[in-house]
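Job type: complex structure
Entries:
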Amino acid sequence: MLALSSLTARPITGKNIMAKKVLIVDDEQNIVISLEFLMQRAGYEVAIARNGEDALEVVGQFRPDLVLLDVMMPKINGFDVCQKIRDNPDLQDTKVIMLTAKGREVEVAKGMALGANSYVIKPFSTRELVAEVQRVLEEE
Amino acid sequence: MNRFTIIGQRLVAIFLIGCLLFNYPLLSIFSTNDMLWGIPILYIYAFSSWLIIIILMIIVIEMWH
Amino acid sequence: MMLQGGIILLFSLAYIGFLFAIAYYSDKRSDAGRSVISNPYIYALSLAVYCTAWTFYGSVGRAASTGIGFMPIYLGPTLMVALWYLVMRKIIRISKINRITSIADFISSRYGKSSSLAGLVTIIAVVGIIPYISLQLDGVSTSFDVMWQHSELAGAIPPPGTAAILGDTSFYVALLLATFAIIFGTRHLDTTERHEGLVAAIAFESVIKLVAFLVVGVYVTFILFNGFGDIFGQAFQKPELRDLFTMKNAGTYTDWTWLMFLSMMAIMFLPRQFQMTVVENVNENHLDKASWLLPLYLLVINIFVLPIALGGLLLFPSGAVDADTFVLTIPISQGQEEVAMLAFIGGLSAATGMVIVATVSLSTMVSNELVMPLLLHFGPLRLSERRDLGGVLLTIRRCTIILVLMLGYCYFRLTGNAYTLVSIGLISFAAVAQFAPAIFGGIYWKTGNHLGAIVGLSAGFVVWTYTLFLPSLAESGYLSPSFIESGPFGITLLKPYALFGLAGLSPITHSLFWSMLVNAGGYMILSLVGQQSLMEHSQAAQFVDVYKRTQENDFRLWRSTSSVTVLRSILEQFLSRIRVDEALNDYAKKHGLDWSKDDVADAALINYAERLLAGSVGSASARVLLASAVKEEPVSMDEVMYMLDETSKVIAYSRELEIKSKELEQATSELRAANEQLKEVDRLKDDFISTVTHELRTPLTSIRAFSEILHDNPDLDVEQRSKFMAIILKENERLTRLINNVLDLSKIESGKMEWHLTAVDLKEVIEDALATLEQVIKEENIELETALAEHVSLTVTDRDRITQVMLNLLSNAIKFCDSQAGWIMVQLKEQDYTLSVAVSDNGPGIKPENQEIIFEKFRQVGDTLTEKPQGTGLGLPICRQIITYFGGDLRVNSIPGHGATFFFTLPVVSPTEAEADKEPNYASPIFANGKTNNR
């Protein structure tokens, strides 16, 4: 009934200029708010996309070091986004962490096969999530 | 086939009863010189048993018709 | 003087002529299709051919010396007939299917249509029956003599068999009987070898002999004497007669039992009994009534045996009169010529009946099983190439009848009057009892084989000859008496009446024991160690399993083809052209063939022809005849296996199986479809669960994340803190709502929802719902329009659930109506006993392709990123389920861009129901508990 609201992704300026950049992709507003808060607290520069289409747009402009990518989204889902990122030679260094549901080992395997660097299961522990983001970003 | 077997079994039973009635030792019980209504008791026994067998057969066979 | 020779002869001839008229009449009736013999009474009377001159004259004779010692001969059949329901029915069924013509045919057919076995059985039957025939000649000629010379009484009668042949009454009697038998039995050749006229005549004779005997009995008992008590009382006075009242003279109990057994076999296997019971049987069901009519006949005809015997002994105390003639001599001695004449006719009936049927059945056997196979095998005659073999067959039969009677006469001359009538008859009984193992084994034991039958029968027959037949000749002086007294060549162990030292039994019992031992023993042992040929195996299965099969599924014994022309020519040798045409046309009609086009005779047709032919010439001959004309193809190994593996059963059930497999196929495809459906349901269920878990996980993720954030960051400012707290609360609500929805839905779908039914005024419900949402509507600045009918009928429903539906629809309208100038309209109407409610908004509307999807679970359409409360994706599906449950309908009308209208209907209750519903306690059954389950 509702047309998709085209809320454009907006870069959020972090404190540190050298800060790593994280793109949050999720269609659940409250989850986005929590992730945004956590990433900013951890000192990252954060951008937000509310769906797959936005994500693909933002990822080119924003050039994030890491994408926190929700799998279950309408239209273009997380897997497609991940695939597109990996297909783009410019984005080879971009890390991807999939946010997925528990009990969906197939999704995990699929995500990893598509080139995701790691995955975090919802509902997640905030500390573990932050730790995982840091770990992935420190990887070469 | 049910009717067939149950009648068959009853008739076999009649056959066995008959074999019993018309053989030693039952027969020997009546082998005396006693008379009943002026008729030797052995004759009465033999003919009435015979008749009973026939009546039983009539009952079993005709009951189904 | 009434009883002059000429008059007696005239009476006899007139009686026989009358019998012939009966036979002729019933044959005509039969040809016209209105059989006179096709009823159980005639059938039972024809079976009474069992009562011969033996019964008519001999029973009295035996009773005069043994008391009730005559009875086992009738008690045995009485008991055996009780088993006929099982045994004889089976034999008749088998015989009808295989067109059996005689007992020899039956046995040979069972053991592979063996010519040798058929021949052996025929020889045993002929030799075995000769004493019996001679008994009849004895009885009839004695009765002639008694009548002839009645004035001088029986004492002056020359002992039979001593006069010169041409002066011997019994010789002429034999010729007379042969003539009758030929006239009755071999007038024409039937395909089924049935003789309706003969049966009618025999049945009539049974009536005559019964009436005659009863008249004599009544005369002796009630006229000559003063009733039973008088005769028995007088006899009791005489010590020498008193023993007849007990078992003392009736033989040992062992003999008694064996005699019963012997007569049980005789009633089944005497060739004439087999002829009447099996071959002449019109309808298997006649057996039922005959099973008690025959014993009743036997009982009635024997009631006066003892009174006549004792009366005779009282009248002729000297012993000068042969007790075998009491039935005649008592009335004659009292000058009762009419009674005597009737008795004479009765005795004649008894004897002629037996002789006619016995010789007819023997002649069939001799011609079919002995002469024909020999002639057919005897190449130079080229008999199989002659046309009209039927005439040859008839000639053979006529000659056989004469031969059998002459043999009987010879035996009569040889044995003289050394024996009583009864002991002669028992010799024949013992001979036919030899058939018992082969027949009983044949119909109940598939393993029984040809070799066993041949050896058993031969051994039994040899023992019978040695222990009964030869001694009977020896006693009359044609063999040295020392043969009996000290055994052949003085070897006492081989004494014919005490074989191997077995003494103390009567000759009959003794012979029966040994012959049955070697017969049954040989049959069983050889059957167990030997093997069956292919043909035997199939025949054995066919006989034993006859009830499981039908003629249509007949086993194909011919592994060959031939031409119809050839078959026709073979058939026409034995059957009339008309009959052959008829039979072949029948077959063609049944199998949809046209003989002008189809000339290939397949195995089934050859089989049919064989059965047709078997009806005339017996199965062994029929097979030989056809084998000469039909080239059998080699039987392949596959087919051998096929046949061996209980083939008959397989074929009998094959049609059934075919139907079953079709049904099975159908059931399989149905099952497959059902399985697909189940899989689909399962997949949907999986989808549903994963969707539900995702839907649950989303609020949970937010709640957990913000809880941890709040916990880990005590330094947060108040504003942020309360914002996060609000999110947690909101997500909590969402979670609760979701869980409730899922529970509702699963309850409705599984039928476990508790519905609280009451009569509901929908207007009230709508007003309540609007009141609940009044605040929100005001806050959102939405224009609310209502058009509710003033008075509407009540509807029976669950008030809370309908309120839930109403709230859901209104919430959706509030959520999706234009955010600037929101407008909502609620309508309530009643029409045609239906209430309809419509909720409209001025939102973006729903695309046509989505108008059904929105009612599916978790199929929200559109944006969820509004500030409005999150939908669960279950609201509309639940609403629809509720409305459907109450017999209504929930749908949506929408043009994209012009808002949407959700509307539902509910049926109105009738006034009486509504009236009842207003009562606090519901009287109507469906409200008995104030609620019902969704069933």
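Summary: The interface with chain C takes residues 7-8, 11-12, 14-15, 18-19, 22-24, 27-28, 31-33, 35, 37-40, 42-43, 46-47, 50-51, 53-54, 57-58, 61-62, 65 of chain B (CB under 8 Å). The beta strands of chain B are 35-36, 39-40.
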